[in-house]
Amino acid sequence: MGATKTDLFTKEQNELANIARALGHPARIAILQHLVKINACICNDLKNELGLAQATISQHLKELKNLGIIQGSIDGTSICYCIDPKVWEEYKILFQTFFAGYQNPDKKCCEPGQC
Amino acid sequence: MGATKTDLFTKEQNELANIARALGHPARIAILQHLVKINACICNDLKNELGLAQATISQHLKELKNLGIIQGSIDGTSICYCIDPKVWEEYKILFQTFFAGYQNPDKKCCEPGQC
DNA sequence: ACATTCTATCGTAATATTGCAATGAAACGA
DNA sequence: TCGTTTCATTGCAATATTACGATAGAATGT
After folding, report:
1. Per the domain annotation, does A3 fall within a domain?
2. A77, A38, A46, A45: which is closest to A64 by C-alpha?
3. Exposed, middle or buried by CB within 10 Å (0-12, 13-18, 19+), for A113?
């Protein structure tokens, strides 16, 4: 035991959970926010921006790239990373849909005798 | 090493990452979706709904309760869980804001010579 | 060719997460 | 009171994540 039992859940549940888990680290949030802020590609200033080692940043970038939300292209000795607009939009809608599903019920929840 | 270096990041980044990580498991997504679907409190049918052991479900519920997105109230021998509308709305806006920050730039990203 | 720069990968250690059986604790009904 | 039901907690094992130093690979400039 110890591994997530993905087979118990739907494809959609696993997908949303995967995206959420990828966003579930402040370094990766910071990377994405930085990319959003400059609204362009970044090449080498990530090590100064975050306080982490180069190898660690590379790992986080790899996860975000695996998720598809960022893309990298080689530019000489450095690599340009930027947000993939399509995937960003797709995930945005996924979260929107998830959160939009809930409507605040007028009747109070978890009142005695309700269950 | 091995622990996340939360001190390197802002409170907002850590908060968003924490929420995302809590959503980063299909069982917890499934629990929330189930709560959304019935739009009321649940008391005991979670073990049948998911295929996990009671102890495991209890753990996931605890995490969601710690996050604040669900609340539980005692009803006899069972416990009613339901979504906390305020927190749900708060997190909904947090993710909306995060995703809304990015505007698809008109110029192509990661073109040669751009960096 | 050689040194330099930038990034990915490997190896390793520390820590966190996931899952379950077993055990507790609290409320209910007979 | 005693057994039942329901959920939380504990203890443990398996797996995943995080972080970094060291190393390797690829492109550039001299």
Report:
1. no
2. A46
3. exposed
Residue pLDDT, tens place only, B22-75: 999 999 999 999 999 887 667 567 888 899 999 999 999 999 999 999 998 887
| Whether pLDDT at B15 is above 60 | yes
Tokens of B66: 């710690």
Q: Which of residues A12 and B106 earns the better pLDDT score?
A: A12
Distance of CA A100 to CAs A79, A114, B88, B95, Å?
A: 37, 25, 10, 12
Mutate to test the interface with A, among B11, B14, B15, B33 (most CBs of A within 10 A): B33
Q: Is residue B70 part of a domain?
A: yes
Q: B36 is in which domain, residue-wise?
A: 9-100
Residue B106 belongs to a domain: no
Using the beta-carbon criterion (under 8 Å), do B36 and A102 form an inter-chain contact? yes
**Nearest by CB: B41 against A71, A73, A115:** A115
Q: Which nucleotide is nearest to B76 (CA to C1')?
A: C27
Q: What is the CATH number of the domain that holds B49?
A: 1.10.10.10
State the residue for tokens 């960022």. Answer: A70
Are residues A11 and B8 in contact, defined by beta-carbon separation less than 8 angstroms? no
d(CA B99, CA B74): 37
Cβ contacts of residue A32 below 8 Å, gap of 6+? A23, A64, A69, A70, A83
**Better pLDDT: B38 or B110:** B38
Which amino acid type is present at position A61? L
Q: How many domains does chain B have?
A: 1
- Let me know if residue A112 belongs to a domain: no
